[in-house]
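Worked problem 6 (solution included).
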Amino acid sequence: MTTPYDRFTAFCEERTGRTFATYDELWQYSVDDLPGFWRAVWDFFGLDEIAAEPLAPGDAAVLADARMPGASWFPGARLNYADAVAARCDRDGTAIVGLDEDGRRTEIAWRELPGLVAAVAGTLSDAGIGEGDVVAAYLPNIPETVIAFLATASLGAVWSGCGQDYAPEGAAGRLAQLRPKALFTCAGYRWNGKDVDKRADSAELASLLDDLVLHIQVDLSTRSSASASDRLKGRGDPNSPLSRTGPLVPGRVVPELVAELATTRGRRIETTPSTTSWHDAAADTARPLTTVKVAADHPLWVLFSSGTTGRPKGIVHGHAGVLVEHLKETALHSGLDEESVFFWQTALSWMMWNFQVAGLLAGSTIVTYSGSPLYPDADRLWQIVADERVTLFGTSPGQLNASRKAGLVPGRDHDLTALRMLGSTGSTLPGDLFEWVYANVREDLPISSISGGTDIVSAFAGGSVGVPVVAGELSVRHLGVALASWSPDAQPLIGEVGELVVTKPMPSMPVRFWNDDDQSRYRAAYFDHVWESSSPAEPFDSAQEPLVEAPVWRHGDWVTLTDRGSLIIHGRSDATLNRHGIRMGSADIYEVVEGIDEIAEAFVVGVDGPDGAYWMPMFVTLVPGAELTDELIARVAGEVRTRLSPRHVPDEIIVAPGIPHTRTGKKLEVPVTAILAGRDNVNVDPKSVDDPSLIDWYRERGAVHAW
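Solution. The predicted structure is:
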């Protein structure tokens, strides 16, 4: 059976007159000739058919300016992401399967998808929302979320989402920056066998978004169930506020809750947005789907950074860049096509949600799952893979390790014959989990451990169809990604640990950051790293010539590039927290914890351990006379859980003799993380630390931690 990769390789050979006998040869072409390669992607996937007009000839029509940041991709093109999905819809079959934790199953057919998207887009448009306006979502991973996104994109409006595990204040810390005009919410979700009522939180979030004119409440009570897994039937609580016995009436519920919140929390609410139910918003499926053709770099969505160094930054990606990147990733590297079923366990706050939607671009059925991956037990996701005949299953090292610890043998207990690839991301997949998959799932199952991020809403490296897999490694640098490992003095490394850099632009690199007109925050995030002098005797200073001719993207990962072209990721070289695949920022936690009277200062880090383990301790110093009692620990955890999310709650809270800082007052999160992980090659210059004696205390603390 030929794959999309095979067909694309033949396509490139025909147009270049060259032979690409190996993956490495095609990769080299893809980074040596960026305009030629990305035009080939554009043409192979027929994007001229959905664009306002065909792409003009010449390299400049693909890449007019290759400087980073600010590379100019497809400058004359006008198109819309939603059209690329609609182009797949003229056929039978299922586009989206939605599964809830209680076993309820819904389907959206390909032929009905455009009508649903058009109906929701019409509701937005009728409220005056159009090109350039922001539409926000506070939703679980359900089919309605996908439809709401496509409706937003079709209008040329800008999408941004946040999972309902965030408290209203945490969600508003992201979404309020964008001043959205519309908000999608729902009554809540089910997690670990319990209904989580989010009606009050949804109403409070709406009250915190000053420019809101429309609030659409997704009414889960009107959704029907079909083919639910027998062992999960009947798990719902009929008395729950999320029960399916009758619809909510958001026109009544939401204003009442907002008024109550205004009274109890001292907020003065001048007006409330117009509210409507999802049933009403999506009722007119007879509307034709019409889209707004936008410029290639017109914002498609805004994703958020973790907030490590301050308020989360809004990362803007454009229509064309995302389209070509995601078509390349889903079809060429993952092998998705119209016969595929794509399931990646994810949440709206994680960029893998955006990548999951991209399965529709390849014509695949996508499976959304709202619920705990480990309820009622660690076998839950394997049951879904079997029931839905999933061909690409995406998960995390944590879920695979839980399966191992539970003694599961999925390949014996389920029919997984449809499964063609297993994907993993969120943290490094250790070699022994590769071996567990081979022994307990299937011996010949290709495993694609990928690494990328919110920044590019894609992967830099990972597995690829037809490429051999080595346990513990990412098989290849992905096509079009000029990835290298650099030493501190900007020299390329093979077989040694270095900084992961990308030396040439990618189409899905951010168009810009939100509210960053001079690109200063964008440059600081990826391009302003100062590389050391190659001579220790001649320390670098700003008067010297730069070590590199042009800025390169420094991602913040330690990586080894092997002589076979594969990669080993060693963890973050910056201070981003990454628990269960969700990247989080320490700054959010500091804002909450350091506002508690007894806490003088807080210091939180995330440490990768063996077998996918992750330890997120928080060290605190206390005000004079205060003690770290059980009551204070519970109060700190409660504040973090309520104001941010359960994922932000540290694993333990430890009183420290002090918090180490640089001389300019920055907390030393990066070196302390490495020290706590037990790395013995961490060099901290005592002259750069305000209290050097603290380093030994943290080293001792890491030594006594038992994984």
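Discussion: The chain is about 30% helix and 20% strand.
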